[in-house]
């Protein structure tokens, strides 16, 4: 049975979060395609992970047979999170832009699952090639040619981290201008916001079907 790893990191509930709404669309279509499948769900806002500390980091560089009980205990969470990623046939990640970059909760997840010689810097990585859809929502517009293009640190960071360090097969869905309906200064952008939102949901459903077909091939 195929397994989907679904990660949300928005601080807000689904009715107020563009990223949660779009990851939910992907998951709904995925479950329709895989009624007997498994979904592993991590809500990093509701159940935040501790930041990686020195002991847990050291444990990741220590061979299992050489770890002390203290190092084993420190490594347990990293092992659990990495195992969830390794089990996944596909991954969907909600990554809203906060202060021009990803939520710290998502950064903490990445720090835990990037394990040298296992999920990263291994030939091959234990997660190499896993189809991964990232919903990178943002309240404004940060695309090429926009005034805030240089403030975009979500796609650049996640693109490099997920592909270069974890060797995942990454695609992005980018709902933009999500604050247009609540910010009076963006009133003239409401139509563009609605179109971006609709496109994101269409892409999420389509990508769920595409990933399903790829896995079945």
TrEMBL record:
It catalyses: N,N-dimethyl-1,4-phenylenediamine + anthranilate + 2 NAD(+) = 2-(4-dimethylaminophenyl)diazenylbenzoate + 2 NADH + 2 H(+); 2 a quinone + NADH + H(+) = 2 a 1,4-benzosemiquinone + NAD(+). It holds the Pfam family Flavodoxin_2. FMN binds at residues 10, 17-19, 97-100, 137-140. The keyword Acetylation does not apply. Quinone reductase that provides resistance to thiol-specific stress caused by electrophilic quinones. Also exhibits azoreductase activity. Catalyzes the reductive cleavage of the azo bond in aromatic azo compounds to the corresponding amines. HAMAP family: Azoreductase_type1. It is an enzyme of class 1 (oxidoreductase). Its cofactor is FMN. Homodimer. Binds 1 FMN per subunit. The gene is azoR. Its EC number is 1.6.5.-, 1.7.1.17. Transmembrane segments: none annotated. Residues 3-174 form the Flavodoxin-like fold domain. This is FMN dependent NADH:quinone oxidoreductase. Gene3D superfamilies: 3.40.50.360. InterPro entries: Flavodoxin_fold, Flavoprotein-like_sf, FMN-dep_NADH:Q_OxRdtase_AzoR1, NADH:quinone_OxRdtase_FMN_depd. PANTHER family: FMN-DEPENDENT NADH-AZOREDUCTASE 1, FMN-DEPENDENT NADH:QUINONE OXIDOREDUCTASE. Keywords: Flavoprotein, FMN, NAD, Oxidoreductase.
């Amino acid at each position: 049975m195929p397994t989907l790893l679904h990660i949300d990191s928005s601080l807000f509930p689904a009715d107020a979060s563009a990223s949660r709404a779009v990851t939910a669309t992907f998951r709904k279509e995925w479950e329709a395609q895989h009624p007997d499948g498994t979904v592993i769900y991590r809500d990093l806002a509701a159940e935040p992970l501790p930041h990686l500390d020195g002991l847990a980091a050291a444990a990741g560089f220590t061979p299992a047979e050489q770890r002390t009980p203290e190092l084993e205990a420190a490594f347990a969470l990293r092992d659990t999170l990495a195992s969830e990623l390794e089990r996944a046939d596909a991954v969907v990640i909600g990554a809203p832009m906060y202060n021009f970059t990803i939520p710290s909760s998502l950064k903490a997840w990445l720090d835990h699952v990037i394990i040298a010689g296992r999920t990263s810097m291994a030939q091959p990585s234990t997660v190499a090639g896993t189809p991964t859809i990232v919903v990178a929502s943002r309240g404004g517009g940060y695309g090429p040619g926009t005034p805030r293009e240089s403030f975009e640190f979500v796609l650049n960071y996640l693109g490099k981290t997920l592909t270069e360090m974890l060797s995942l097969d990454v695609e992005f869905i980018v709902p933009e201008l999500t604050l247009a309906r609540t910010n009076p200064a963006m009133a003239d952008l409401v139509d563009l916001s609605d179109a971006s939102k609709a496109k994101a949901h269409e892409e999420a459903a389509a990508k769920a079907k595409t990933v399903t077909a790829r896995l079945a091939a």
